[in-house]
Amino acid sequence: MRLYRIALWAVVPVTLPLLAAPAGVPTARHARDRVHQPPLSAGRFEAATRPTRGDRPSPALGARPMAPPRAAPRPAIVPRAGWRPDETKRDRTARYAGGVGAVFVHHTDTPNDYDCADVPRTLRNLYDGQTGDLHWGDMGYNFLVDRCGTVYEGRAGGVDRAVIGSHTLGFNQGTTGIAAIGTFGPGVPVPAAMERAIAALAAWKLGLGGVDPLGKTRLTSTNSNSRYPRGTSTSFDAISGHRDGFATNCPGEALFARLPAIRRLAAELQAAAATRRAALHPVGPGSPNGAQKNMK
């Protein structure tokens, strides 16, 4: 079996209760970046977040459910069953944060000349390496995106929930890891379809908590082997690169240089969705929403 080099890593420290849903905790990092994985400990996500689905209160009878102010459409996501991992190999327990306040972008450090039809095999190789040879419990990334723009569910636990992955040492809680399948060193072009898919995924995932892709999020390090000593509170871009939280080249010079464009596109997607909602449900004296507002 062929295993590619893997781009990340950390076990996530957290004091949240374990819920009976799929997903593991550990993961991998570039072979050159490996360090001893510490035991679980407490961690915090300090950005304002909203409850994940299932924790949200139900609206009153007759009320229209309110979308978060920055809600964006959910992109198509291939579920785990679509790439057929051996589910018996992973940790069956998922861990969740209170919400997602930031996205960390990675690359998988695998070949770029793949046929997109063969991506499920690549994902199984990555998964087998992380759950088998490296004993890290599950896929470390929450999502993976191929060069054709297809988004895959990575870590188990529910794509619309704040599943704690194992992608950025010290900063896994309250964040989502999105991995671009390939290696994006200096001069390597980032496929436009991949870039658009990462932006759409980030716009949706951050929008669930009302987070602006162009904004900042404050995170607290849970591991001193990250760029910041444990307990240090640090401001990150809402869409950051792996290297922002850990000493690594990931996600590669080329992809890292595209993050400003990805942030702008994600923000545009959120704004376009808000415009569509306003057109469908105008608020004014002559509208039902406006009448309710004026009665208060």
Percentage of residues in helical conformation: 10-25%
Shape: globular
DSSP strand (E) fraction?
Answer: 5-15%
Distance between the termini: 66 Å
Taking pLDDT < 50 over at least 5 consecutive residues as the criterion, the unreliable ranges are 1-64, 290-296
Describe the secondary-structure layout.
Layout: E1 44-45, E2 77-78, E3 102-107, H1 119-133, E4 143-145, E5 151-153, E6 175-180, H2 192-207, E7 216-220, E8 233-237, E9 239-241, H3 242-245, H4 253-257, H5 259-280, H6 288-295
Parallel strand pairs: 2-5, 3-6, 3-9, 4-6
Antiparallel strand pairs: 1-7, 4-5, 7-8
Helix pairs in contact: 2-5
Describe the structure.
Helix 2 packs across helix 5 (259-280). The chain is α/β, with parallel strands linked by helices. It has helices at 119-133, 192-207, 242-245, 253-257, 259-280, 288-295; strands at 44-45, 77-78, 102-107, 143-145, 151-153, 175-180, 216-220, 233-237, 239-241. The N and C termini lie far apart (66 Å). The protein contains six helices and nine strands. It has a six-stranded mixed β-sheet with strand order 2-5-4-6-3-9. Strands 1-7-8 form a three-stranded antiparallel β-sheet, with no helix packed on it.
